Amino acid sequence: MAAPFSFCLRFSGLTIRFVLPTEICPPPAFVPFLREDDGHADEEYTVRLLTQPLRPQEPVTHRFQQTDIYQTEKGWLHIFPVQGDEIGCQVACLFCPDGRHTIYYPAKKWAYYSEVWGCSHLICGEQMLLRHDAFLLHSSLIRCQGKALLFSGPSGAGKSTQASLWQQHRGADILNGDRTVVMRTPQGFLGGGSIWSGTSGVYCPDQAPIAGIFLVEKAPQDRLERLGFQAFRPLFTQTIVNSWDPEFMDKVTDLYSQLLSQVPVYRLYCRPEKSAVDLVYHEIFEKEAL
Fold it and tell me: Domain containing 110: what range?
């Protein structure tokens, strides 16, 4: 029997190991995050091949976007029935509280899945991050002068446009185009890149201290409005959460309470122009120097 194949990714300060039954070519989106395996991993996902369907004894806890979710003795089991085979073997992820998780594939379809392997949608990323005091925020993330700025809001609000303007006019680095890892550390909150980037195709493993979060809204004139805890609701709606898990909801709510007490949040009314960049730059980088 061939030895299992493994590789490690590192982003936002976390190392994740994947253990697979055969060697694969990691997808292009993973390449910026590949690291040597030094024996340490914060999380580990082992791929196992099914010859018989998983049959949970527990009832379905929640159904979400063609995913059946079960709360089992070992952890949360996410089953994706539509990705199974003709005898009912499923694609699934068993997410365990000890950080050692299992991804299941039908053995008969592994030859196909190993060729097109990309498991970022299967690893329960929001649960994994929360184990490390972090969550995913729908936002574009830039780094300027060593500080992170996050532009959040619904699709079409102009997040990516603002990030591009900062890159063009202030030489900022875009660390992620769509999903920011917001992480609490003893030194404060950090914004980091991740393997999740929507359709932006922007991937970077780096982190930086968050200097400000901006809720982007298109408007005829540029204007900033400093928000307090009233920013909780609009930001929370842009966060990936497990609403069926009370423990998850309690912890992410606590993280948000601390975030809003430590990091300034603004409503950014703006046009897709350099003037919006100048307005934010003055607020974050020039005001504090006065």
Answer: 5-123
Instruction: Say whether both 144 and 261 belong to one domain.
Output: yes
**What are the DSSP E strand ranges found in the chain?**
5-11, 14-20, 34-35, 43-50, 62-64, 67-71, 76-80, 91-95, 100-106, 134-144, 147-152, 173-176, 179-185, 188-192, 207-218, 223-227, 265-270
279 three-state secondary structure = helix
**For the chain, how many structural domains are there in total?**
2
Strand-by-strand arrangement of the 100-106 sheet: 34-35, 5-11, 14-20, 43-50, 100-106, 91-95, 76-80, 67-71, 62-64
Q: CB of 44 within 8 A of CB of 101?
A: yes
Helices (H), the chain: 110-115, 125-130, 159-170, 232-236, 246-262, 274-281
Least-confidence region, from 78-82, 95-99, 142-146, 226-230: 78-82
The pLDDT assigned to 290 comes to 47
Structure tokens at 133: 């005091």
CA angle 194, 197, 199 (to 5 degrees): 165
> Nearest-CA neighbor of 74 among 106, 99, 96?
96
Query: What length is written for the chain?
Result: 290
